[in-house]
Records
---
Amino acid sequence: MNIPPQTVKRGIHFFIGGLIVWQIIIIIVYLVSGWPNREPYQPFDMDGRLTIPTLLQAGIILSISLIFFAFSLVKTKPGEKPRRSFWLTVALLLLYAGLDEMFKLHLGFSGLVPIVGTKYWIGIYSFLIVTTGVLFYRDFKAVWDFYRPSVIWGLSGLGIAVFGAFVGEIFKYTLLPLLLKWLFPQRQIVAAFAEQIRISLEEGLETFGEILILYGVLLYAAKKLESHHNV
């Protein structure tokens, strides 16, 4: 039985909308429970391991990875783009990113490679993103030519996620300590809550961006299915 394309898209919209609402609830619970006790409700700790927020982020990333793995299994003609190697490479990178989000692997590697367990992981991830974009430029262009809205949503989500992650970490190590020391030198409660606000913004933007990426990927998959049905 063929499902009408509009029904598929409607289902995608409801699913993505549900993820956004759930993320908003997580942020509210995290902030409300963290004031004034300074200890957020542990299952909703946005900076913890294996908590609801981290599992949500990991689930989104791993879902995208699974979809890309599925694309890599689809037979393609010789020379056709996107190539299997493109889908498989991005899927593997996303698999690591999802596991890293869940278990904070980059922190655990600090004993082997000290630079990985510090703020410099930002540069490492940036290098991987740029390198992948350069190596698979023609494959990305093929995705763009096939269905541009999905790429626009995906790039928008990537931009938001990168902005949240990078700016949040840079703010943590530079401006935030100076501002707190200047404005609230004796107010530890205020300082702790300010850090929670920073975390909620950083993780919230990351998750929202990842949701938009998933939305773009699902739209692309739906368009692919629609094109196969119309052949």
---
Amino acid sequence: MGSAPERPGDALAEVAELLTSPEPPSRNRHFARFAGRRGGRVFRLYRLYRSLAREAAALAARPGATAELVRERGGLWLKLSDPSLAYSRRSLVPPELAGFFRARLGQSA
């Protein structure tokens, strides 16, 4: 009798918890938590979305640059752009992380 297969939302719920934690996780301090295949995936996703959040915050502070969440084609997209740098980026935001990004960008549901 094996355990039930992990659903993608389970890992993303843990990522959301890590993103809102007052103390950032450390792969060294929390070795047991991030050991193994699932833990490694959670930590990689955490670093990816933490990076996107930092980039969005930096762009939101620049004149002329934008960082916004947009519902499009059945998904929620984080759109980042800075015309002065000829830079734009779009990233799909999982529903489990929508609240985190809305709060970071000061947007309502």
---
Amino acid sequence: MASFAATLPERQPRLVGAVAFGVAGLLVASAWFFPAVIHGADPVVALLYLVLPWLSATVSGAIFGPRVLAAGRKRAMTGALWGAGTSTASIFLFAPLFAAVISWTERGWTNVPGLALLVLWWGLIAVGWPIACVGALVGWALSRWSTSERKHRGAG
């Protein structure tokens, strides 16, 4: 079982990236928006503030996960930088999703691109740096995992 987990980053880099960044995105969104979700008691609020951040982080992790793992094999800090970029890219995925769901659930929002730009701008200002820091931590952890897998395989 240990060898299965050790070789997983090499065999399934998209899956590893999607799961790692998805879990991190859900944890950050839960920490940030959990009081609003609990007090709202509305499934749309949970969709907007928990599901959409999780979805965008998962997709971003699946897209850039192989690159994070490959960069981390060279240097752990390079993996951390790619991780920060991956999590920041998730904001760029989140903004249009959020704007589309808002326009679908709340009548009166007709300018979806304008709302997406507004969400993107304020999202980068309000939560951009914590998301980038968490992404850097995830990228660093993934790079350490991928290099430990190489060392483990080389020692055996």
---
Amino acid sequence: MTTSHRKLTPREAWICLGKGLLLFVLIPWAAWAAADEIADYRLTRALEELQADGFATCIGELLPPEIPPEENAARFYSAALAAFDIIDRPCLISADAFSSTTADEKAELLNAIDQSADVVGLLRRARSLRKCRFDRDYRKELSIPIPECASAMHLSRLLILRAQTQAEAGRQEDARESVRDLLALAECFRDEPVFELQFTRSILVDQAVITIEQCSRSAGAEADLLAWLRLLPSPSTWDEALERGLRAELASTACLLTKSRKMDSLLREPEGFSRVLDPIVTLLGLETLDRMRTAVALCGRRNAEAHAIATAMIDRSEPVTMNFNILRFLERPIRSLLDQRAVRKARLALAQAGLEAELFFVRHGHYPTETEVRDEITGEPFVIDLGEGVIRAAGPGLMDPERLKVENLEWTLLPR
């Protein structure tokens, strides 16, 4: 039995080719549509879970409350930051170089400090008001203009040098007032739902701790040492600042994923191609949200435990890392942030241990042999080495001492 094969007519051949091309187009489109639906579903569920757990999914939910103009310190802080621009900033040396300044350099420095009287006056007026909210358009989410960051960092140099010159001249209470100005400048950003401002706040508080350590070296009276000790900020300040900053980043990321699936400007690709990548970007964005959510939870944990979890989280996320600008832009280096927080809290604890040791000497005529103050990095009490004349950490702990500069965390006891 033979089978006959009929040759297709040209019309039938074109029909078969058209069906094949249609299948070639429809199958990938159907797969993309299914992936897009899955991404939408997972995004909706993720946002619902975040809201149920108390996380904001847009910056608007984190805005500080409205403040009547007469109660708002922001206008005085903004004026102080603006007025500082007219000061001769080049002569404002770094705080570390203050002890080695020449007479001419110190004269220039004192002149710049004298010019800052109006700035300090504005800061003191701002300190008299307990509430602060800056006038900015928070609807811009990730593109919120934040000019205060750089200005606040420059102004902090002035306040630090002012405190140092006052302490050197024996004006201990005036030096403490300058440090209070610095701490107040940091706290004006306390309610800001912007990561960069919370990060600036953390740095300013850390600089205040360093300044307290430097200025208290010239304090010999028990009352002065007690006043410096009481001026130390709470260690929870860095936990709160990091958590607020990460919550703001999480809210901005969620809002960005919700508002638009077209990431053209962030992906730097043509609109049509970026639309094809929308499901992939959304799913990777959800991974970012999940890691940021975990990062927020780490803010309240001790450093050793938080560091271990952050390391595992980073290692787990490496296989899904792709070369999308949006993920690199949104996801903060959480392990580095946790390490910085640990070093700052360790420096604060060291300052507490050092001031308590100096106070002990004033009261008893000799230094103590041990302290109960614990180091945030190692979790162990600081070691008082009377032979070397220093208070130091028991060891580097779980982190690389070179990366964290742990070797710099020492309090040198005053030669008596």
